[in-house]
Amino acid sequence: MKTILVVDDEPKITQLVRDYLERAGFGVIIAHDGKRALSLAKTEKPDAIILDLGLPQLDGLDFTREFRKTSNASIIMLTARSEESDKLIGLELGADDYMTKPFSPKELVARLRVVFRRIENAMNMSSEMIRIADLTLDVPRMRVTAENRAIDELTPTEFELLATLARQPGRVFTRAQLLDSIHGVAFESYERAIDAHVKNIRRKIETKTSEPKYILTVYGVGYKFAEK
């Protein structure tokens, strides 16, 4: 059974989310503030986290910053903040996705299933290895090596995005196409989220982010993986 840590300071919301998740077959852990959530995340090691940004003691952005130092488990931000800057900061810190309150509990469950399906699909590809120049992706193990450096920090979303691009070097993907590749369904996530994920990937795999050699920007269109 997959375990989900739900973090929100509103008991009605945590209870609503718990009901839907348990009905869908997930185990649920609840926290109402950021410090308690961080403690539970370290001891219980949840498979995914549903995280509100406006938390007492330690807000959602600070939680994500600390949590990402030790774990790549998926994070879905669940927030009343509608400002684009907050969403982008959360994604750049390592969140995989976000939903804005008021939200659909059914859609939240669907997004979690997409996250876990993505990981399971990768594990079921028993022998897929992607090698482009000095970059290697071991798809079943979700491991990346760049210039003989092991890259262990990619989240499931970041890994899937990198693999999508690397499977077809030179092909130009629009942001909408990349969103579809990582979600598989049409969610509300806006295309700027792709920019945040690409920024994270570059920070982790490139030796010089100002001059990327793997994921290249195609201005006015989207991104492509560099050809050999």
Describe the overall structure:
There is one protein chain. This protein is of the alpha/beta class and 228 residues long. The chain folds into two domains: 3-118, Response regulator (Rossmann fold, 3-Layer(aba) Sandwich), CATH 3.40.50.2300; 125-225, Winged helix-like DNA-binding domain superfamily/Winged helix DNA-binding domain (Arc Repressor Mutant, subunit A), CATH 1.10.10. Helices cover 42% and strands 21% of the residues. It is built from eight helices and twelve strands. Strands 2-1-3-4-5 form a five-stranded parallel beta sheet, with helices on both faces. A four-stranded antiparallel beta sheet has the order 6-7-8-9, covered by helices on one side. A hairpin with a 3-residue loop joins strand 11 and strand 12 (222-225). Helix 2 packs parallel to helix 3, helix 4 runs parallel beside helix 8 and helix 6 packs across helix 8 (192-205). The longest helix is centred in the middle third of the chain and has 20 residues, at 105-124. It is globular, with a radius of gyration of 17 Å. The termini are far apart.
Condensed summary:
The chain contains 8 helices and 12 strands. The protein has helices at about 10-25, 35-45, 60-65, 85-95, 105-125, 155-165, 175-185, 190-205, and strands spanning about 5, 25-30, 50, 75-80, 95-100, 130, 135-140, 145, 150, 175, 215-220, 220-225.
